[in-house]
Write a structure and sequence with these properties.
The complex is a heterodimer of chains A (108) and B (114). By secondary structure, chain A is mostly beta strands. Helices cover 0% and strands 61% of the residues of chain A. In chain B, strands 2, 4, 5, 6, 9, 10 and 11 form a seven-stranded mixed β-sheet that branches. Chain B has a four-stranded antiparallel β-sheet with strand order 1-3-8-7, with no helix packed on it. Classes of the chains: A mainly beta (108), B mainly beta (114).
């Protein structure tokens, strides 16, 4: 069973395009995280959300608790945004469940 | 701060061998966790700890042991390695449990079991 589903699995965009990555989950959660995994394998945290919307630079994350859905938006995409973006939810206190990731390639 | 460190970076084991993957953090974080990442499956939680002396199982704990004798260290032990444990292992930490804080990840250990 997959508690977290992401779409699309793969995404190719031209530099400057607006990008949306979607995350749907099936369990009750206390928080949702968006992570970025670089081509070299390192993982960094982008956002932690429990409600509403957060913005950091060109990145925007939103969550709709009632619909069990979150989106990650990248405005004015750049080749350095090329990475795998991972959605993770926290359920039952300390249990993390992860999506399989969205592989983004931004072409100059 | 070094953040979250993991050793070794790469390891090859034979079936049945044992080993310990090391994880340390210098940020005084309460919560530490171990994940494995397999192609097409995403990260999966193996074990976690909410403080020194307190550990609990995650989604895929079988074949792995952990202990947390200090706040800084959270080693992961493979008692008898199996080919199914071939994976990339990540350690992570956060200031408090409950998923309310940013997760800091180590660089990962790539383990191959022959």
């Amino acid at each position: 069973k997959n508690e977290v589903e992401q779409s699309p699995q793969n995404l190719t965009a031209q530099e400057g395009e607006f990008i949306t990555i979607n995350c749907s989950y099936s369990v009750g959660i206390s928080a949702l995280h968006w992570l970025q995994q670089h081509p070299g394998g390192g993982i960094v945290s982008l956002f932690m959300l429990s409600s509403g919307k957060k913005k950091h630079g060109r990145l925007i994350a939103t969550i709709n608790i009632q619909e069990k859905h979150s989106s990650l938006h990248i405005t004015a995409s750049h080749p350095r945004d090329s990475a795998v973006y991972i959605c993770a939810v926290v359920s039952g206190g300390n249990q993390f469940y992860f999506g399989t990731g969205t592989s983004l390639t931004v072409i100059p | 701060n070094a953040g979250v460190t993991q050793t070794p970076k790469f390891q090859v084991l034979k079936t049945g061998q044992s080993m310990t993957l090391q994880c340390a953090q210098d940020m005084n974080h309460e919560y530490m966790s171990w994940y494995r990442q397999d192609p097409g499956m995403g990260l999966r939680l193996i074990h976690y700890s909410v403080g020194a002396g307190i550990t609990d199982q995650g989604e895929v704990p079988n074949g792995y042991n952990v202990s947390r004798s200090t706040t800084e260290d959270f080693p992961l032990r493979l008692l008898s390695a199996a080919p199914s444990q071939t994976s990339v292992y990540f350690c992570a930490s956060s200031y408090t449990p409950g998923g309310w804080n940013e997760q800091f990840f180590g660089p990962g250990t790539r383990l191959t079991v022959l």
